[in-house]
């Protein structure tokens, strides 16, 4: 019996060592593949960003929004709406540099849990970039391009200017782009006349403009 144990144990040890080397090799290959894949995604996203900037330079895109007849200055936006918007969409807006790592990590964890790109962890600056230059298709390449564009916006504009532009380009459903159009369409008033309850309803609309806008919710009640 002892002889059998002595002959088995070295064999087991050799098998374990071989298995360990195999697993280590597989892990190294996986890490290399992941790193290479990530690098390719970043480069593809950077290319998408460069193409967008070349086709529609930032200063021209920004001025086009500001030149709209219905452009709403930030000073005419209800403070309640701004506070609710930041609380809902990007409560670290005034402290991050265009990208919020904590929000991205939280979104990544949720995406892993669901096994799909369910959340993006986008800041208001990233959402502004998406509205100015990119499609709303959920693709990693677009998300990376959006990050580069957000950094560009942060280098050109103040935080208040970014917030002002975002409020003017965000989609509220039923043909409404920007807060002024949404206030007139849903409540027949200027933004400054919105009540706190109306402000909250419009902020909630941003989560799903087609199904959570005031008219859609009224039909389900």
Q: What's the helix and strand layout?
A:
Layout: H1 2-55, H2 58-66, H3 79-89, H4 101-114, H5 124-133, H6 140-156, H7 159-169, H8 179-187, H9 196-205, H10 214-220
Helix pairs in contact: 1-6, 3-9, 5-6, 5-7
Written description of the protein model:
The protein is an all-alpha fold and 221 residues long. The protein has 10 helices and no strands. The longest helix has 54 residues. The chain is globular.
What is this structure, in a nutshell?
It is built from ten helices and no strands. It has helices at 2-55, 58-66, 79-89, 101-114, 124-133, 140-156, 159-169, 179-187, 196-205, 214-220. The longest helix is centred in the N-terminal third of the chain and has 54 residues, at 2-55.
Straight-line distance between termini: 79 Å
Which structural class is indicated by helix and strand composition? mainly alpha
Helix run count: 10
Chain oligomer state:
single chain
Average pLDDT taken over every residue: 83
The string of secondary-structure elements, in order, is HHHHHHHHHH
Q: What low-confidence regions span 5 or more consecutive residues with pLDDT below 50?
A: 1-8, 22-33
Question: What is the overall shape?
Answer: globular
Number of separate strands: 0
Q: State Rg.
A: 25 Å
Largest sheet: none
Q: Determine the fraction of residues in helical runs and give it as a percent range.
A: 55-70%
Keywords:
221 residues; disordered N terminus; mainly alpha
